[in-house]
Sequence to fold (262 residues):
Amino acid sequence: MAHKTSPTRVEAFFRALGETGNQTIAAERARVTRQWAQLRRKADPAFAARMTATVAAAQERLRAARALEPTAAAWRAQAGEELVVRGSGERLIQIRRARLGEWTPRLEARFLAALAACCNVSAAARAVGLSVSAAYQHYHRWQDFERRWNEALEEGYVRLEMALLEAAGRAFEPVDYPPDVPIEPMTVHQAMTLLAQHQARVHNIGKPVGRWRKLPRNSDEVFASLQHKLDRLAHKLTAEAVPDPAGARRDLDRGARILRGG
Fold:
């Protein structure tokens, strides 16, 4: 079968392989079969070496990709199915068909539209049927998505501020969301909380809402904190004229030693 394939078709296969790093898609675009490529690879060492070098070059180029959507418009769809850049780190990186439940350019657009409408990552993730962790993983993986995410938040915060100003003195009315993005209703308090978080995180204004108290970093800090509390409690017992404050303090010190393992 290999000897019947024209040089033009062979070159079309390698051109597509160099752009996608995907043998299956390259074979489809050149109108040959993947089996043809595998058989030719086994029978022709020069063909095999060229395939290896072509795939390696494609992976190196795609590893620097900043977006899930392929740069070239010609590789954004194949036979009516969306194509995406997939793979990270040392894994195989190639342009391939998007699988069910995976991020796609259309899903990114829906998520960002929801995020701009509500400024709430959890609500936006629910609107597109994905988890918050999946959203943040995608955020950290693709620089272009990170940029558009931040722009969507900025747009959403401006819309929230304007809506709050317009709704001052009356019940908060949510902004008009895109019809295909079901966003949950939002109260005035929720809107104010989101804006406060935005001011603290982006502009360093105020204190982050719901910020956790600083926790001890090691055992020495834990015991120092405990000793401080024991000293305060002993002082309180003395001030309250406890019959045997010295005995109470001994009991407290014994408890501290037990906690230390001594």
About this structure: The chain is about 60% helix and 5% strand. Residues 208-213 have pLDDT under 50 and may be disordered. Residues 143-166 form the longest helix (24 residues).
